[in-house]
Amino acid sequence: MPLPRKVFLIGKVAARTGISVSAIRHYEAEGLIKSMRDQGGRRVFAPADIRRISFIIITQKLGFSLKEIRAELGLLPDGRTPTKRDWERMSRSFGHKIDDRIKTLELLREKLTGCIGCGCLSLKKCALYNTKDIAGQRGSGPRYLMGDKPAT
């Protein structure tokens, strides 16, 4: 496959994206980006890879795993530069997941001072909200923070 007209060496990509060369190699090993080789055998990247790496950085900072990011990027046809429409679709997909996380954080903020359904039964409120550890019958963990509702 011929090289694109404009390519960047790995050091330039690192400087442009603000991450280390080793992080770029890690992303490549994880299948998130693909380098090409120039005539001298050096790793080179297309300009679109800078955008792809920036997308990876941002989504990681939002708390998404490399597995989740790989799945989203995997929806792109192999070797094709993502289009504006591709980026919009990925942004919507991650936007829905971010909305869900916001709801969970809001619930956490509301419930944190009361019974969280963890089964400890150590607070006076627990006897009211989680009598006989009803929450524990629904599964392990802080059931009320995970979305279960106390019995009314």
What does this structure look like?
- With 152 residues, the protein is mainly alpha-helical.
- It has 2 domains: 8-110, Multidrug-efflux Transporter Regulator, Chain: A, Domain 2; 112-152, no CATH class.
- Helices cover 49% and strands 5% of the residues.
- It has 6 helices and 3 strands.
- It has helices at residues 10-17, 21-29, 47-61, 66-73, 84-111, 124-129; strands spanning 8-9, 36-37, 43-45.
- Strands 1-3-2 form a 3-stranded antiparallel sheet.
- Strand 2 (36-37) and strand 3 (43-45) form a beta hairpin.
- The longest helix is centred in the middle third of the chain and has 28 residues, at 84-111.
- The radius of gyration is 23 Å and the shape is elongated.
- The model has no long low-confidence stretch (mean pLDDT 85).
Strand segment tally:
3
In which range does the helix fraction lie? 40-55%
Give the distance, in angstroms, between the N- and C-terminal Cα atoms.
65 Å
- Taken in chain order, the helices and strands follow as EHHEEHHHH
Q: pLDDT under 50 segments (min length 5)?
A: none
Structural class category: mainly alpha
Tell me about the biggest sheet? 3 strands, antiparallel
As for the CATH topology of the largest domain, it is Multidrug-efflux Transporter Regulator, Chain: A, Domain 2
Q: Can you give the mean pLDDT?
A: 85
In total, the number of domains comes to 2
